[in-house]
Specification:
The complex is a heterodimer. Chain A is mostly helical. Chain A is 76% helix and 0% strand. The chains are: A mainly alpha, B alpha+beta. Chains A and B meet through helix 7, helix 8 and helix 11 of A and strand 6, helix 2 and helix 4 of B.
Amino acid sequence: MHSDRASFGLRAAALGGLLFLHLPILIIFLYAFTTEEKSYAFPPPGLTTEWFAVAWNRADIWPPLYLSLWVATISTLLAMILGTLVSAAMAQTRFFGREQISLLILLPIALPGVITGMSLRSAFSIMDIPFSTLTIILGHATFCIVIVYNNAVARFRRLSGGILEASADLGANSFQTFRHVFLPNLGSALLAGGMLAFALSFDEVIVTTFTAGQQSTLPIWMLQELVRPRQRPVTNVVAIVVFMATFLPILIAYYLTRNGSETAGAGK
Amino acid sequence: MSFAVEFQAVSRHFGPANAPVKAVDGVDLTVPEGAFFAMLGPSGSGKTTCLRLISGFEKPTAGSIRIFGQDVSDIPPNRRNVNTVFQDYALFPHMTVRDNVAYGLMVKGVDRRLRAGKAEEMLALVKLEGYGDRKPSQLSGGQRQRVALARALVNEPRVLLLDEPLGALDLKLREAMQDELKALQARLGITFVFVTHDQGEALSMADSLAVFNNGKIAQIGTPAEVYAKPRTRFVADFVGSSNVLAPEVTRAFGGPDRWSSLRPEALRLTAPDGVALSGTVTAHRYLGAGSRVSVAVNGTEVSALVPAGHGLPATGSTVGLAFDPAALHVMEGEG
């Protein structure tokens, strides 16, 4: 007989899987409050909030944080412009080789980061571009474009036809249609794509390692910091900040696209 | 007499020039000003393409289109004084009902307060007062249909195009909207061009109608003309499921050696003795207001409509058939 309730074994396994995935994150948060600074002893011998103040006053945290924010912001903006243009072309026109090009656009996200990193590194060397903030941004933009493209192209497909024609029928010129109908409907998809791209860029390590010069982004700073047994909980404080900076945009992006699909489909 | 819309040998072909898909093929038609004009046909017959040629979303491959005497070949959709009620309504999902209705005025640069007032007026016209602040997603299908109508009327078009506007509504609502549309058209005096595949809708609403088949107009005329005197077998069959009689059957029914049509309601069932025509009842179909009785006459099946309350002959029994000879309509066209 079919039962709507899963068996005990299945439920236990699901719970176990979820705990395995998420408990370590909670432990990372817990260690931000530990009084033991040299090693991660469990359970923590005592709890304190002093590491937040220490982290705040550590001068070496700020440059990587600023760099990460800067890189994420610029590569996201770049991706939003290029990704939107590409998705508009893909959704609204048909041309020879369209499917192949669409595959090429998606490739950077399917490709392992090491491959992307290696190829970019050698390309930058050949072109004599010194490794700098610019090369990190270019590296990040390769996968950020895909994220924006994926979000925008789905919305474009739904938008084409119907309401754009209605707008022209009511007397709007192309610019007015773009501004009053197109952009408001594409807006939430773009914002969602942008936030996902920002989150991905903010904690990217592999491509960054290959394309960075002397400077470190926040994730790379964290990696270096873990090796040194000094003020370890500071790294955990930073981890909480990184978690907030990446998780919140993803959460918001999720809600944006969810509502977007509801309203965009409502005309049917 | 001036014409709202005039097609001269208009064709719209798609695909390669050596093997084109002839969506519209050499159509001539005129829609008188102030008319309620229906374009009727099965799907793929070219009626919707004709509508899009008027709105400007399609350009003719050949021929010319005039709207109130003006050649519109080079005029884009946004500069034609024509508005459309789209099949799926195509309301702007991100705008309130009021902003949807006022959209045409907004893009013209009409002052905000003025256009809000005008939008309210239009909503009252379609009996949706007080719905201005809602989003389209919060409305029922019938209400969305009215918003689409109000939105198309706000620009005071000289021609209103309606693309199967009632297709998505249930029967009861559809009938109510048919009456309302008809009344609205009479009140506003605007030319309506109405596309439908529902022959009942076309017959009951239109002043004149064009029946489309394979990209061509099979017949154009008033509903009564088209119904009573179908020009071709296709029209006879499509507009009200008539009995289409082959030349030899027409002769057996006392007509000339030509294709003809005979409406089911013109056929009466009588006793089998002493009549010229008789046949065997093969099936009944209950229609509510009456029953459609199929009778095989010398191998040809014809239908007779028996009003409710009359006795129905049993399947397999022999019946006589009688009709007014004037009801037998001999068709000019073959197709």
